[in-house]
Amino acid sequence: MAFHNDPPSCYVCGSTSCSRIHDAIRYGLSPRPFRCDKCGFVFIHPRMSPEEEREFYDNKYRSNYEDQKPEDLWKESLPEARKRVARFQNLFTKDTHILEIGCASGFFLYEVRPHVKTVTGVELTKEYVQYATSKGLDIRESLKEIPAESCDLIFMFHVLEHILDPIEFLKEVKEKLLPGGKVIIEVPNVDDILVSTYKINKHLDFYWEIAHNYYFSKETLGKILEKAGYRYEMYPLQRYDLSNHMYWMLTGKPGGQGFFNTIFPQSLLDEYEKTLKEKFLCDTVYAIATK
Ligand SMILES: [Zn+2]
């Protein structure tokens, strides 16, 4: 694992031939994004050491980076949680045991609970654990507390990019799955049209960030899953709309979701989203991976 004093090297293929792809990251911090010249894997270098990472998530992440009270996050996230339940409903039945890793304040588990047999969460942030527990959810503070071969479905929404050793982590996740069980992994897509095509400087300064060790595409997420011993299928997803993209171009700032929706017809929005997904230039990808 490469940290501060090492030259940039690729986590996936080990190549030391890696190119810096932007000269800034969010909050003016010093690490930079690199792309492996050999396999195309994108990563932040230097990454935090495990000790720095623990300190970061214990003390800095919530207060400096993700300043959201558990209740506000809950309210803001319920609509997306409902969409996720609908998106994956063909994967579960009344007999399904579900685990979510990185469940935050528990909104997805809360929404999916009426449809399945059991729901369990793993979450590191203590304030979120307390909040989710107050909603009657069963939350553990470590994956180690989850018994082997106890889950039919494991969900990880925007978690894998935060993990320092995702291949080892996914092997550990696999041990928790029942035979034939599946893990659903949703991550930002580094081939996002804003990053790969529009290349808006202000957006890139914001896009690259210290909390994301790695930036996956459908190809590199696939490689990671193969190395962890899964079979998988990859799916495109677009979370931000045409207004958001135009707003970035016009102002260099986030927050334009829906901004031009009184002008844009729904058919235009739908067609734009469809095109991004077909070409995998969408902002998000998810894998359904089988043990
Ligand atoms: Zn590589």
Main attributes of the structure:
single chain, alpha/beta, 10 helices, globular, 36% helix, 11 strands, 291 residues, seven-stranded mixed sheet, binds zinc ion
Give the ordered list of helices and strands: EEEHHEHEHEEHEHHEHEHHE
Approximately how much helix is present in the residues? 25-40%
**How is the largest sheet built, in terms of strand order?**
6-5-4-7-8-11-10
Percentage of residues in DSSP E strands = 15-25%
Computed CA radius of gyration, to the nearest angstrom: 19 Å
Mean pLDDT: 93
Number of strands: 11
Provide the low-confidence segments as ranges. Answer: none
- Which structural class do the helices and strands define? alpha/beta
Shape: globular
Q: How many H/I helical runs?
A: 10
| Small-molecule components bound | zinc ion
Largest sheet: 7 strands, mixed
- Oligomeric grouping of the chains: single chain
How far from one another are the termini? 26 Å
Description:
Helices cover 36% and strands 21% of the residues. It has 291 residues and is an alpha/beta fold. The chain has a seven-stranded mixed beta sheet. Strands 1-2-3-9 form a four-stranded antiparallel beta sheet, with no helix packed on it. Strand 7, helix 5 and strand 8 form a beta-alpha-beta unit. The chain is globular and about 45 Å long. It binds zinc ion.
